[in-house]
Give the backbone structure.
Amino acid sequence: MLLALLAGALNILAFAPFGLWPLQILTLAAVLPLALRASNCKRSALIGWAYGFGWTVCGVYWLYISMHQFGGMAAPIAALAVILLALFLGSYAALAFGLSAWLRQRWQAGPACTALLIFPALWALTEWLRGWIFTGLPWVSSGYAHTASPLAGYAPLLGVYGLAWISALIAGCLTLFPNRKAPLALALVLLVAGLGLKTVRWTNPAGQPITVRLLQGNVAQAMKFAPEQIGTTLALYRDMIRAAPADLIATPETAIPLFAQQLPPEYLPQLADFAQRSGSHLAIGIPVSDGPQRYANSVIGIAPERGAAAAYIYRYDKHHLVPFGEFIPTGFRWFVDLMHIPLGDFSSGPVVQAPFAVKDQWLLPNICYEDLFGEEIAGQLAASHFAGAPVASMLLNVSNIAWFGDTIALPQHLQISQMRALETGRPMLRATNTGTTATIDPQGRVTAQLQPYQRGTLTATVQGMQGMTPYILAGNAAILLLAALALGAGWLTSRKNRCISA
């Protein structure tokens, strides 16, 4: 278990900002034999739990900063909360390893069947489960380690959980070497095929490129909602927006820290007047109130053709809310009361929302945490496609993860956005408060970015894309079907071998 714990901790180096992607496969390949050779299924599960705990506690340790430093929670309680969360997230790895050992015994499966069919399928399924149970927390899901690896070519087909399956399959191949040479050849074929798939272009340019200005205000989280700071923040973003025209100017999440109704009466009309005079489209992060105790974490859009009187013509409301930060799970009011986080109980927006028209392009926003759920973004694109409505040609993520300090959370979130670009074949724009503000091309490559924790504006020209990747059309259904077929093949193979032996 200690070796598994250390391997899990080492696994975090496979992800951004370190990028040592082979470690994700190698650490999994190192732990798999330990678990399958354990004396019983319970022991296999505990070894998997140790691996999962080491991996996730190193991946999400920065939550301590948001709870203690910015939320005011007592340090011991905040540390305990992170440990308990990592123990819970580690249980998914325990489930994959434990079930693999159990099925191996029950089906009397051989090593090759277990390593190549049973375990990779269960690994993908448990990674998928981690993405939706209790609203999901798929941060540092194993597939994210491969945004720049040969396996990235599979992302437009199978999504991030498909990459988890393929990486586990390669890990299974390695566990069978050197006793068997054929699995090593399979691993090489999978890697080479991934490289080949990276050359396939699933989407094509749509319309004319647009100029974008992405704003990074670098407003300290400790001051963001302080009453004495709000006037300065409003002036900061007003001036940053009006500093120069662009086809699209985007601010971070809740860049405007007041409800629209609380703003000075002239504030939004002044921005709309600038949009009209300069021909600019504005996408502004702001909370919007729809009545007593009903407010949304929103992006509003201001278009030049509507004039100053319209204020804003477009609104996107965050749909997938952050537990404890944006909504309070039933029975956990006491936990939230241990912190002092403003705007802690938002209303959820519709699952499918229309994109924002920007000249020849259609822009679909997602807000911070929503970027983790590729199936939901793909689902919105597919819903528009099948309804015959305008389909977004580019994506926009607006975020404020200053809550997590200057930690690996920033490059990790950038890597998550890279995966969304790969899955959808569309550019991703990121406007963030403290970083990382960036542009990402449809191949998941960061084409430009600002230094974190510096105030600045990222100016770029971006080409929108049209067309449907297989992942947009099928979502996670494809990898779920493949995993089910692999388990079925494992059962049939084991049954056939038992019959031959008999």
Notes: The two ends are 37 Å apart (CA to CA).
